[in-house]
Amino acid sequence: MAYEVLARKYRPQTFDEVVGQKLVTDTLKNAILQDRVAHGYLFSGARGVGKTTTARILAKALNCAQGPTVTPCGECDSCREIASSSAIDVLEIDAASNRGIDEIRELRESARYLPSRDRRKVFIIDEVHMLTPEAFNALLKTLEEPPESVLFILATTEAHKIPTTILSRCQHFAFRLVDYREILGELERIAQEEQIQSDAASLGLIARAAAGSLRDGLSLLDQAIAYSGQQLDEESLRQLLGAVPDQILEELMRGVHASDAARVLEGVERLIRQGFEIQQLTAELTRFIRNLMVARVCGPDPQLLPLPEESLSRLKELAAAYGPEDLSRFLQIMLRTQAEVRYALEPRFHLELALMKLVHAQRLEPLENLLVELGKGATKTASKPAAPGSAAKPAPNAEVDKPPLPVRARPDAAVGASEPELRHSPARTPPPTLLRGADAQPLALIRDRVQARSKLLSNFLEHNLVGWRLQDGQARFTFSEEVRWALDILTEHENRELLRSICSEVLGQPVQISVSVEESGNAPADEGRVRLSPRERAERDPRVRAVIERFKGAWLGTRDLSQE
Predict the structure, then answer these.
(1) What are phi and psi of 42, to 5 degrees?
(2) Residues whose CB is less than 8 angstroms from the CB of residue 374 and which lie 6 or more positions away in sequence, other chains included
(3) Is the pLDDT of residue 253 over 80?
(4) Same domain (yes/no): 42, 186
(5) What is the pLDDT of residues 457-492, one digit of tens each?
(6) pLDDT for 66-111, tens place per residue?
(7) In-domain check, residue 318
(8) What CA–CA distances, in Å, run from 364 to 325, 334, 354, 459?
(9) Rg of the chain over CA atoms, in angstroms?
(10) Number of domains making up the chain
């Protein structure tokens, strides 16, 4: 007798044997038990997930000698003939090769006659999306009002190509991809029945390569047995499937973590010499980085990571070396590279460039840290008053046609300022601050605790706070006028709640937070002061100057948000 491949030998014969489609099979079983079987069904889903198999089981359940039943016997003539695709009343039609209107007309004529032996005449049309528009139109009327003894089961891998007129006449069941663990369990069962010696790692490779298709998994298992015999070996299976060993991928990522570009490029060279394709290597590395990200964010959850148990601990250890932001950035780079290498003339160059991006991506500073550093540098610059009549030097790389902004002294430091608008204006004296004596110690504790929890808020308290006091159960913070534009940040619910909780802890009593800006307009010394324009105020702000100098910026315009 000729050899029968595993996909046919272990094809499910009852609803309970179908793997991974419990929702579909339970619905069909209930329909049979309640005598509510429809006249037309559409089964859609990826290849190898059980569409045609379920259609045959439904035909057996309706035509079994002991039925209709949800557990066909498999022994009667109808069950055996349907299982072998030789039943005269169950016709399987391949729409890819019988897609014209003439074939559908013949099917429509055949549907008019009663079954020869069985209860129902069943038409299983596989890959139905291949039918021509004329063939679909010829099928419409028969599909909507077929004879009582006729059942249509349409199967397709591309449900979006089915006309809506056909969809509206059928009950649609979408078959899902089979889970990795379900495929692995089925492979282990079949390997045991076939007396194949294997381990979880080798079968896990096959289950991962199956990508949700149980039939593909069984075909790969057949191929592996033909290659390795009765003893499946992980190393030989990797060569057969073209799968990159996890240890090599781990070594690449350790080189990335160490910022060792030479080590990473040498690893790519070794893999290429071993015969791995660039496209396959890129896909494997992308999948590995995704697993690292999931392990870092969610922990080594077996439901989210299709890996054997022994690989999960190593993955968790490696993932701990990276931050979630780094891994998400890595995954974005590799996904873009995976799309590029598919059509690239030199795919190796694209992969090497992506790996260089991974090496250097860890050197990127978070934007929050840059803002804090800019704030510190701006404060130091502002603390040094400009000499009278001195002009700012242009940036080293400033463009000739874009002169740099003049660096002017702050109003409170420009005692001898030479600008026209300040010539007749007395220097503003800062308001008396309450940061001495008994008030200084709790404020220092508040600053220390804020610094440990929010760098942005700590920066404002460190450089822009000019006064604070505790009055009537309120911690009142007064900031300099230069940061009026940033009060929205200081009064956000999250920052305000953080400041309130820290103040309550330090002061030993529940307090509310009051944030205000020093009001210079009420001081007698400011009555004759010329009000500066929004642009002039922005030009005098030390943080604005620091950003422009740091990034070689040019001034485009100014908007006064306080007036909106």
Answers:
(1) -125, 120
(2) 543, 546, 547, 550
(3) yes
(4) no
(5) 777 777 777 777 787 778 888 877 766 666 666 667
(6) 878 999 988 898 999 998 888 889 999 998 888 888 888 888 888 8
(7) yes
(8) 11, 17, 16, 21
(9) 37
(10) 5
